[in-house]
């Protein structure tokens, strides 16, 4: 028979395990990256002194809405996640959480995140965030088994956080918001196709068709990725050209872009999984470096 101390420790262990499962459901690292891009755009678009409390509040709301989308995605794909090595140990396929509890969690996150943006920022911010949630959860998610169109659809909610940040600061969609959206929208393609290249074999187990061509890991696929990288480079210096940021951020974006291009050219030349993995990690570094430079060099 268990002692009181043993029962207490067992209950604590169960609670820690449950909390860990909910954190995994958020895809916390992805949610933080998305939240950061929105918060940096909010700071870039803010006129005058920063209100740290509002920056934190906006970041939390973005993390909540992104987490809700990630949780909903996992509910819809639980059977497919069981088929893949990368996702088989997630909270739902492993049985650590039920679909119902995941949906309640997603609903609560979405409600609170949207409420924060409505009350402390403006209804337009909340509306765009809700549209982003719907696109990711109910358009991008089912299209992943249809074909590469999923990546184009998914790039819309993936590119919206900077626009949402600008709208939260200004209350309107202006040229600055559209340019920042364009940069992150185009960045999605080399970023996500690098991931899809690395995970292609695993994705095929679930019937996901995400690389741009049917012959998957090929020179032509690498060239398509390269085209989007080449489009990204001039886009990334537009904030400088349009006077939203100073010349220093333009140089930072150019240098980071050339490094990103180098990794892409290695994928074209060699076409290995290692090249794609390097491009993937390069993409994770490229975006925050450029966006932080924008904020530090704002005019």
Polypeptide structure, described:
The chain is mainly alpha-helical and 299 residues long. Helix content is 79%, strand content 0%. It is globular and about 70 Å long.
Strand count, sense and barrel status of the largest sheet are:
none
Order of helices and strands: HHHHHHHHHHHHH
The counted number of beta strands is 0
Number of helix segments? 13
Q: Please tell me what the overall shape is.
A: globular
Gyration radius (Cα, Å) is: 20 Å
Low-pLDDT windows of residues: none
Mean pLDDT: 92
What percent of the residues sit in helical stretches (DSSP H or I)? over 70%
By secondary-structure content and strand pairing, the structural class works out as mainly alpha
Per DSSP, what share of the residues sits in E-state strands of 2 or more residues? under 5%
Query: How far apart lie the N and C ends?
Result: 69 Å
Quick gist of this model?
79% of the residues lie in helices and 0% in strands. The chain is mainly α and 299 residues long. The model has no long low-confidence stretch (mean pLDDT 92).
List the helices and strands and how they pair.
Layout: H1 4-26, H2 28-45, H3 52-76, H4 78-81, H5 99-120, H6 123-143, H7 149-170, H8 175-198, H9 200-205, H10 219-236, H11 238-241, H12 247-270, H13 273-296
Main traits of this protein?
mainly alpha, 299 residues, globular
């Amino acid at each position: 028979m268990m002692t009181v101390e043993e029962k207490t420790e067992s209950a604590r262990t169960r609670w820690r395990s449950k909390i860990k499962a909910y954190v995994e459901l958020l895809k916390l690292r992805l949610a933080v990256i998305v939240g950061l891009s929105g918060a940096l755009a909010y700071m870039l678009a803010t006129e005058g002194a920063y209100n740290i409390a509002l920056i934190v509040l906006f970041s939390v709301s973005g993390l909540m809405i992104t987490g809700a989308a990630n949780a909903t995605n996992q509910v819809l794909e639980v059977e497919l996640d069981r088929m893949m090595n990368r996702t088989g140990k997630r909270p739902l396929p492993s049985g650590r959480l039920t679909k119902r509890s995941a949906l309640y969690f997603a609903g609560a996150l979405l409600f609170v995140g949207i409420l924060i943006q409505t009350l402390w920022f403006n209804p337009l911010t909340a509306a765009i965030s809700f549209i982003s949630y719907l696109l990711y959860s109910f358009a991008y998610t089912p299209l992943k088994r249809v074909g590469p169109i999923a990546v184009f659809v998914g790039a819309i909610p993936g590119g919206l956080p900077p626009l949402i940040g600008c709208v939260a600061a200004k209350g309107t969609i202006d040229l600055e918001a559209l340019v920042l959206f364009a940069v992150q929208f185009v960045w999605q393609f080399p970023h996500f196709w690098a991931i899809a290249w690395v995970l292609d074999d695993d994705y095929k187990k679930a019937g996901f068709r995400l690389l741009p061509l049917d012959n998957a890991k090929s020179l032509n696929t690498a060239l398509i990725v390269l085209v989007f990288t080449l489009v990204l480079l001039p886009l990334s210096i537009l904030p400088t050209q349009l006077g939203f940021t100073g010349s220093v951020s333009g140089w930072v974006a150019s240098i980071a872009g050339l490094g990103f291009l180098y990794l892409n050219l290695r994928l074209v030349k060699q076409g290995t999984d290692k090249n794609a993995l390097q491009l993937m990690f390069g993409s994770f570094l490229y975006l925050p470096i450029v966006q932080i430079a924008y904020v530090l060099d704002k005019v």
